[in-house]
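Review box. Two proteins, two foldings.
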Amino acid sequence: QVQLVESGGGLVQAGGSLRLSCAASGLSFSRYHMAWFRQVPGKEREFVATIGWNGGVTMYADSVKGRFTISSDNAKNTVYLQMNSLKPEDTAVYSCAATSRGVRVESYLYNYWGQGTQVTVSS
């Protein structure tokens, strides 16, 4: 059974940093590409960042480019999202996801999802 478990969310002031982690079990990181999405109540889920299975390819949403960094540790089956220079508009529930269909930004192409972790940025 595949499980994705996020951690690291919390409350931070604008300009601060957080590091999210997503621990995966039941799947092989060598076969899946990982991503982070975020969602605010009442709005559609938004792509944040994705990383290829070998870490060689990364993509970012324009809104986070230069501030967020996605990385992975295949030995630990864990993907990370380092978030710096946080803004109030980054407030959302952040979820990690896994897909076997390549490095993609479309949420519907992801097979597995975590439960999400809340990130709140105060002004």
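Next protein.
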Amino acid sequence: QVQLVESGGGLVQAGDSLRLSCGVSGRTFSLYAMGWFRQAPGKEREFVSAINWSGSSTYYGNSVKGRFTISRDNAKNTVSLQMNRLEPEDTAVYYCAVASNPGVYTRTAAYAYWGQGTQVTVSS
């Protein structure tokens, strides 16, 4: 059974930083790409960032490019999302997900397992 547990969300002010982490168990973590998505109330789930199996390739959504950084530690089965210069528009529930394959993917359909999500709220 694959389990993903996100942590690190919270309430911050615009311009602040947060670091989200996601621990994965029940699967050979190092074989698969990982992704972060977010969903704001009334909106569809949005791609935020993805990283391939080795960490050598990363990809970001346009709205977070230059502010967020994804990384992974295959020895610890964790993936992290460093979020800098947060904006009120970043307010959402953030989800980490395990892809079905090693590459980098932006579509939700490419991800087989999802965490429960962690709330990030950015006040203006």
